[in-house]
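Give me structure tokens for this 169-residue protein.
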Amino acid sequence: MGTNKYQTRRGLSKTDRKVLRNRCQTGLGFSILVFVFTTILGVTIYELIFDLNPDAINTKMVIFISIGTLIFSGTLNFLINHKYYRDLQFNEKIQVPKTLTGKSKTVDYVYSTLDTSSPNANTIRFEFLVDDIKFNVDKELFEQCADGDKLIFNYALKSQYLLSIEKAG
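Here you go.
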């Protein structure tokens, strides 16, 4: 997203902050999984290959391996989430006005394993077409807007993450 002379800056709302925190939780969960699995793998490899006393676990090496993997997973968490943390720190979003060029409703059907003759509607997707890009929106916004309406796209300042789409005016 390049700079636009029509964009404005606003403070983050509670909903925007919640969306950014949820993005951070995904990265945090991944780094915790990496920490657990690399610690287990590192201790197992050390005990099977390098340990001279196979009857006892070398607790000093377990602590060193755990600290090393903790530093690695902390760095990984920072690399994944630093843009979102900066967005929460600066507490700003960019609002970019755009025009709705098209909208579509897509129904995904799923056939039952017992009765393959009649499909069941599983999910309904509501999509907006803006600047030749499709965006998923909720049903309420889909029903409020028509082709040619002005929309406001809210982006986080540092990560450029799309926080929300709302109808202008």
